[in-house]
Amino acid sequence: MLSLEEGKSRKFSFDSPKEEVERILKWSCMKDIEETLESGAPDRAIDNIGIYDRYKDGTKVYVKKFMRGSGEEGEG
User: For 24-40, what is each residue's pLDDT tens digit?
Assistant: First the structure.
């Protein structure tokens, strides 16, 4: 199993195993999100309700809610 320590980078090429590439990319994205949240800036994400900014304390602030079957757009 691939283990990446803080400050270490891992390179991959087009012939790298898919699972290894996915682990490297997932680790890199999670590290970037963590650094963003630690800086005090929100992380933008999406779920079945809409698009939201997520803050370090777990607070979600929706910036756009998806429309439901009623034909009315949700408030954001």
Answer: 899 999 999 999 999 99
Whole-angstrom distance, CA of residue 42 vs CA of residue 33: 9
DSSP H helices in 1-76 = 18-38
Q: Whole-angstrom Cα distance, residue 53 to residue 64?
A: 10
Q: What is the pTM of this model?
A: 0.58
Amino acid symbol at 49:
I
Q: Which two tokens stand for residue 21?
A: 């590439």
Distance CA 31, CA 24 (A): 11
For residue 57, what are the domain limits? 18-65
Q: Is residue 34 part of a domain?
A: yes
Lookup: tokens for 45: 């994400």
Domain total in the chain: 1
